[in-house]
Amino acid sequence: MADPKGFLTTGRETATSRPPAERVKDWNEVYVPGSLLPIISKQASRCMDCGIPFCHNGCPLGNLIPEWNDYAYREDWTAASERLHATNNFPEFTGRLCPAPCESACVLGINQPAVTIKNVEVTIIDKAWEAGDVTPQPPQRHSGKTVAVIGSGPAGLAAAQQLTRAGHTVAVYERADRIGGLLRYGIPEFKMEKRHINRRIEQMRAEGTKFRTGVEIGRDIDAAKLRKRYDAVVIAAGATTARDLPVPGRELNGVHQAMEYLPLSNKVQEGDYITAPITAEGKHVVVIGGGDTGADCVGTAHRQGAASVTQLEIMPRPSDTRPGHQPWPTFPMTYKVTSAHEEGGERVYSVSTTHFEGDEDGNVQWLHLVEVEFIDGKLTPKPGTERKIPAQLVTLAMGFTGTDQENGLVRQFGVDLDARGNIARDADYATNVDGVFVAGDAGRGQSLIVWAIAEGRAAARGVDRYLTGAPSALPYPVRPTDRALTV
Ligand SMILES: Cc1cc2nc3c(=O)[nH]c(=O)nc-3n(C[C@H](O)[C@H](O)[C@H](O)COP(=O)(O)OP(=O)(O)OC[C@H]3O[C@@H](n4cnc5c(N)ncnc54)[C@H](O)[C@@H]3O)c2cc1C
Ligand code: SF4
Question: Which residue ranges does the record assign to the 4Fe-4S ferredoxin-type domain (predicted)?
Answer without folding.
Answer: 38-69
